[in-house]
Amino acid sequence: MFDINNLLRDNIKRLVPYSSARDEFQGEASVFLDANENAFGSPLVQAFNRYPDPMQHQVKLRLSQIKGVPARNIFLGNGSDEAIDVLFRSFCNPGVDNVIIVPPTYGMYEVSANINDVAIKKVLLTDGYQLNLEGIAEAIDDNTKLIFICSPNNPTGNSINRDDIETLLANFHGIVVVDEAYINFSRQKTFIQELTEYANLVVLQTLSKAWGLAGLRVGMAFASEEIIEVMNKVKPPYNINEASQTLTLQALANVEQVNAWIKETLEQRDKLVLTLKDMTFVRDIYPSDANFILVKTTDAKGIYNYLVDNGIIVRNRNNVELCEGCLRITIGTPEENNKLIATLQQYQ
């Protein structure tokens, strides 16, 4: 049985969060003399002299409409990396607790664990890049607080079997974090729809990928109201700046444009896969539900350096376990993809 009080750090249970000026007053007023701001404005065309909404109410309301989940079940972070860090700081006692990750996977889980002095248990994915449920079950102990599952997975690109994730949710008494940074490109449905079924589920998403807002640093966590309340208590008071909130609201009004880009990205991905398959140095291209592909080659380092010399940057994943010989290639514009193909054809 999941009980959040059995997971929370004792100091977080006792924590009285910082109360900002914008927390204490909400509403309309003509004169604000409460937050020690510069009343004269900003040395910019647009004024940013006032602190932003600490709980990002307008952005959450718009996301609520798009995602079909109540605003009270949404946490916004300075990228999803902040949401990851907040989960560590909320639930994991440094030097005592541990988390499980399933390599190859997104590297920030391990970095955040190390920053927070939380032990990491690694259970490798299978050769088919799926969960090793038996290995995960063996790794869980009384101090295991979080399990991180990236689906679609980075760097492999594939979606993790949904039934396997639900098995973890049903049997693990800690929190299962499903990172869906690439869900907009996937054939699989989001786990957000399962929030009412699993109290121990946290779903991470981002506006950095399909939405094209990587420079604004806006990540999302979706969870039960009690988990979101804890995360809001732990986060810095003004973690999403006013410029990011304003521009995010403008972007969220353009769903049709984003959907068109997603469609074109998937078309370009399929074209790129077909072309690369015929190249002699390509050994395999793994199935992808993301906006990138993982390509196994005969000489990842050599090809990577050759592309760098020609002004094309991909990601060398050769040193990642189970990704030996692999390059991770993001799907670009048609022009960028054509340049990549033409350059690689000269390599053969």
UniProtKB/TrEMBL annotation:
Keyword Transferase listed? The answer is: yes
Keywords recorded for this protein, A-Z:
Amino-acid biosynthesis, Aminotransferase, Histidine biosynthesis, Pyridoxal phosphate, Transferase
Q: Which biological pathway?
A: Amino-acid biosynthesis; L-histidine biosynthesis; L-histidine from 5-phospho-alpha-D-ribose 1-diphosphate: step 7/9; Lipid metabolism
As stated in the Swiss-Prot or TrEMBL entry, residues carrying the post-translational modification N6-(pyridoxal phosphate)lysine are K209
| Biological process according to GO | L-histidine biosynthetic process
Task: Tell me the domain of life.
Answer: Bacteria
Q: Where is the Aminotransferase class I/classII large domain?
A: 46-343
Q: Check the record and name the Pfam families matching this protein.
A: Aminotran_1_2
Its family? Answer: Belongs to the class-II pyridoxal-phosphate-dependent aminotransferase family. Histidinol-phosphate aminotransferase subfamily.
Q: Which PANTHER family match?
A: HISTIDINOL-PHOSPHATE AMINOTRANSFERASE (PTHR42885:SF2), HISTIDINOL-PHOSPHATE AMINOTRANSFERASE-RELATED (PTHR42885)
Its subunit composition reads: Homodimer.
**What is the protein's name according to its record?**
Histidinol-phosphate aminotransferase
List the top taxonomic levels of the source.
Bacteria, Pseudomonadati, Bacteroidota, Sphingobacteriia, Sphingobacteriales
